[in-house]
Amino acid sequence: MNLLRQNKLTKEFDFFLSMPRDMRILLITNVIYALVIPVIDIFVGAYIMRSSNEPGLVAIYQLAAYTGIPITFMINGFLLNKIKIAHLYSFGMILSGISMVFMMTLGEMNALGVGFAGLIMGSSFGFFWANRDYLALNTTNDENRNYYYGLETFFYTLTFIIVPVLIGWFLISSGRWEWIGDIGNAYKIVTIIVFILTIISSIIIHRGKYENPKQKRFLYFKFDKLWNKMLVLAALKGLAQGYLVTAPAILIMRLVGDEGSLGTIQSLAGVLSAIVLYFLGRLSKPEHRIYIFSVGIFIFFLGTLVNGILFSASGVIVFVMCKVMFMPLHDIAYFPIQMKVIDSLSLKENRNQFAYIFNHEFGLYIGRFLGLGLFIFLIYYVSESFALKYSLIIIASVQLLAIPVAKGVIKASNNYITKAEPTLTPTQSSQKKTA
């Protein structure tokens, strides 16, 4: 039995080694940085709640972060003409550690300080995601993207299992250790560890041989009608993103307990999700993406309904578990859909692929701004409980519209890629052969 299990693991590792080298290095870099993401997504919001007891400040922080992303995408586009993409990518990862350091040194939690910390974090996300998306696009092809995003999301989900439990336990236990002093110092120790991990991941990415976009122009205002559909899908994705980062920390700190509960709930939900994700990425085909996408959205919708009806610790636990399952299922389908559209349209319109990655970010931002704007409005002008109960159901209901939109995008991109396939670039052709 052990020998059979060992053979299966060896087979999976050999399959990983059969992938292009630059794709493997990118995956390893992202796996290490994945240890940082749960801290940013979960515990920064909890830190703001603990320090200020103001849910509105959490939403302001996220809105500032999301505002910083498209601005940095544009700056990144110009810098790509002069600076190596690996340098910009690593700078983004390190900048996330700098943002947390700034947050921990704030003497008082107010909208100005929290907003500025959010802008720094948004800038780090901008450099990270702009270059990560371009590198993922150019080191994969449509045939191996399910595997790439499945494996990447599998490890991301594992970190959401392990890291929240360890950090939650550490933060809650810190009061018993004299050498730490209090939970504020414990947060600072976590920040130092995050900073070290960002440095390690930024070093590894330089082991790959990555090329900057050949075409310098990336600012366009008119696109093919297929891209306009993709932007609608991006806006719907962004609509939910702000809530998925902001709401869980507020709900858990209000209705469940403390950071220990926060970590445990995230981890329990991630166990099943991680197993499902790996096999989905390994075995699913491009034609399965719409089914994976739809299942994820229905799970999210169910979680928001339970939370709104119960609005208790039990409801929050169900919602967070559904959210942890929804996010990776959504991403494992969404990103390959987006990449395929970029593949086909960049060939058809003869444009820099980064032009589409940059423009896509504005579609996301519109959704994020509307979603978080609604949340902030409801908190300050209606009530906190109303915002936490019903705004999530509203957002999840709107998300159901993403299913027919995604179906239309997939169908149209299949037609476009068929016409463009004979004119694949040399880089894409070699990747296809390698895969």
Helix and strand topology:
Elements: H1 2-17, H2 21-33, H3 37-52, H4 55-79, H5 85-104, H6 111-139, H7 145-173, H8 183-204, H9 225-256, H10 259-283, H11 289-310, H12 313-349, H13 353-381, H14 384-399, H15 402-420, H16 426-434
Describe the 3D structure.
- The chain is mainly alpha-helical and 435 residues long.
- The protein has a single domain, classed as MFS general substrate transporter like domains (Growth Hormone, Chain: A), CATH 1.20.1250.
- Helices cover 83% and strands 0% of the residues.
- The chain contains 16 helices and no strands.
- It has helices at 2-17, 21-33, 37-52, 55-79, 85-104, 111-139, 145-173, 183-204, 225-256, 259-283, 289-310, 313-349, 353-381, 384-399, 402-420, 426-434.
- Helix 3 (37-52) packs parallel to helix 7 and helix 13 (353-381) runs antiparallel to helix 14 (384-399).
Primary descriptors:
disordered C terminus, mainly alpha, 16 helices, Growth Hormone, Chain: A, single chain, globular
